[in-house]
Amino acid sequence: MTVSVEWLDDWDAIAARAGDALDRTRRPILFDRLDWYRLMGTHLHPETPPAVLHADGGWLFLVGDGPGRAVALSKWYGLAWRPIIDEPAALAAMLVDAGRRYSRLILNPLDLAEANRLDAALKHAGWRAFTDRVSTNWTIDVTGKTFAEFWRERPGQLRNTTARRMKRHPLAITIHRRFDASAWADYEAIYADSWKPSEGSMPFLRALAEQEGAAGTLRLGIAKDGRGRAIAAQLWLIENGTATIHKLAHREGAKEISPGTILSHAMFRAAIDEDRVTRIDFGLGDEPYKAEWMDTPNPIYRIDAYRPDSLRGLAGIGRERAARLVRRFRGG
């Protein structure tokens, strides 16, 4: 059976073609929705039109990234990426067609299942694929647990340190479930005064917070000290039983009182006891503190795929093979 593939590079045209197929009502995961991709494209790739493949109800969201190269439409804020596919034949057809336009694809972040599926599909479509582990996603299943039960399972050092800090430095904590301009101003001020580098696009985060606040999934936690100054902030989204921690920051000058830990205690308690989530996702990154709150490390992968029938593709394959030989020689 022949599958027809079309390329779309305009967000309004994509929306018209998708109808409600990529809406919140049809896609339970944020990273599968058109409004997520549109925010990403508009704010993070403003000068580059999307390169979106559509075939038989399937979607592949890419963006051009130099001559002969495309990357997954994801960037800093994307905690997951995958083809949106109902029929396997659609994925095969789109990857074959992508090979007519590009000599290299960079696809990430991918969980293990997606990495395996894409690796097999790419090779079947004539690509040479190289898969590398690039990060970790920490999660925990809290099905049926109260916060008290969850907290008893955490390391003793975390529980004891948090108790001491909370007693010595009581903070006023508010968790906003709708977008609040004043709270958002606090978030931006905290982030600007934190240990973290400047955001790639604060307007993107604000647009996401406004969008999810309207949908009722936003949880924006702000912690203030005794003087009423906001010193820690966390941006969570809660939907369909899963709480996802997207961003957290505290003022560098307040780190000795551990405001982030105190705020985390409140955010986890609200998610478990009030929202009754069954799963908490700490996003990407293998920072040691995440293991204190979570219990399951999930590997995250990146695929670099090349067309062996193009000069650029052959050069890329050569570089990948050489890099792997060097790592093997060095024991990496």
TrEMBL record:
GO molecular function annotations of the record: acyltransferase activity
EC numbers: 2.3.1.-
Protein's UniProt keywords contain Acyltransferase: yes
Coiled-coil features, chain-numbered ranges: none
BioF2-like acetyltransferase domain boundaries: 164-290
Origin: domain of life: Bacteria
Keyword presence, Acyltransferase: yes
InterPro entries per the UniProt record, alphabetical: Acyl_CoA_acyltransferase (IPR016181), BioF2-like_GNAT_dom (IPR038740)
Key words, A-Z: Acyltransferase, Transferase
Protein name: GNAT family N-acetyltransferase
Organism name: Sphingomonas oryzagri
